[in-house]
Amino acid sequence: MTIFLASEKHIAAAADALRRGEVIGLPTETVYGLAADATNDRAVAEIYAAKGRPSFNPLIVHVASAQAAQLHVVWNALADSLAAAFWPGPLTLVLPRRADSPLSLLVSAGLDSVAIRVPAHPVARAVLEACDVPLAAPSANPSGRISPTAAAHVEEAFPELLILDGRPCQVGLESTVIDCTGAAPVILRPGVIGEEQLQAAGCRLQVNAVDLQLATNNQQPKSPGLLLKHYAPRLPLRLNVTDLQPGEALLAFGPQPLVGAVTTYNLSETSDMVEAAANLFAMLRALDNPAKHRAIAVMPIPRAGIGLAIHDRLERAARG
Ligand code: TXA
Ligand code: MG
């Protein structure tokens, strides 16, 4: 596709594309994002596929207001004061996911928390209003490349996408990510809103070695997946399984699932890797039932493209 000036007409077209489950290039005040409907598993899987990242790093959900955020996360007093001080703006709050939230489990890579923010950029806000769905949006760079601050950067990497041009980003640095799930807030990713500003807003940060190190180096964790808690099933997982054992549930892949499992879910009957990624967390959770199954057996899955991220996640889950 191509770059469109963010006129009313193109904002409406972008909102339609998002509601159809497409991924678009969206300006925010920090950096450009690769945005998709955060409630649509397949659309979220397309983001991961486009980024070409070999693991599922949870994504930030963008909403139009603090009220909209409260539909998806369990709100608390800390979130309330931080939202009042910094939203709309470059601050992301990590909060527990609400059980009744329609967000895709893939957005938070299977975690029980959700990272959420209300962007300040007028184009991002207009698109959120027009499409009326929460938007998952990681920075619009391929894995391992620097974050884009102009529409042309996004087009270079993703020439096939519809990209809204909101002029160069004013901030140019990603949002500060704060974990608000514990007793004291913790900076997970230093960003444009610094510690002094947070403290001035009454946020008494807990500082631990990892955060201090990250803040000092002013960088993202090299492997955020290693620092983040990850989704761990209660049942043992057996990978690359070609024969079933008694009492096992089966996470199948492809047109010829093994037969004889207590319960079977198929990640993709047509061996479609994006469909498999879209189904991964919901199916793992559905099979993870110690009252019914002894273990989860997982059939071989190709290690290419988004298959690498699926393997990374399954291998971590298998290690417990
Ligand atoms: O400024 C920004 O935040 C940009 C614009 C597009 O909004 N977005 C962005 O997203 O930088 P991304 O996906 O590149 O970075 C998301 C960060 C990662 O460091 C990730 O580990 C963290 O947020 N994160 C997301 N969900 C999380 C969760 N549930 N728990 C902890 N960290 C989370
Ligand atoms: Mg990024």
Short characterization:
Helices cover 32% and strands 17% of the residues. It has 11 helices and 14 strands.
Small molecules bound: threonylcarbamoyladenylate, magnesium ion
Helical stretch count?
A: 11
Helix vs. strand class: alpha/beta
Order of helices and strands: EHEEHEHHEEHEHEEEHHHEEEHEH
Across the major sheet, the strand order is: 1-8-2-3-7-4-6-5-9-10
The profile of the biggest β sheet is: 10 strands, mixed
Strand content: 15-25%
Return Rg in Å: 20 Å
Low-confidence stretches: 211-227
What's the number of extended β-strand segments?
Answer: 14
Which term fits the overall shape? globular
Averaging pLDDT over every residue, what do you get? Answer: 90
Helix amount: 25-40%
End-to-end C-alpha gap: 43 Å
Q: What does the model show?
A:
A 10-stranded mixed beta sheet has the order 1-8-2-3-7-4-6-5-9-10, with helices on both faces. A 4-stranded parallel beta sheet has the order 11-14-12-13. The chain is 32% helix and 17% strand. It contains 11 helices and 14 strands. Mean pLDDT is 90; it is low at 211-227. A hairpin with a 6-residue loop joins β2 and β3. The protein has helices at 8-19, 41-51, 66-69, 77-86, 122-131, 151-157, 195-200, 209-217, 224-227, 273-287, 306-319, and strands spanning 3-5, 24-26, 33-37, 60-62, 91-96, 113-117, 135-136, 162-165, 176-179, 186-189, 237-238, 248-252, 264-266, 295-298. The termini are far apart. With 320 residues, it is α/β, with parallel strands linked by helices. It binds threonylcarbamoyladenylate and magnesium ion (MG). Threonylcarbamoyladenylate (TXA) binds next to β5, β6 and β10.
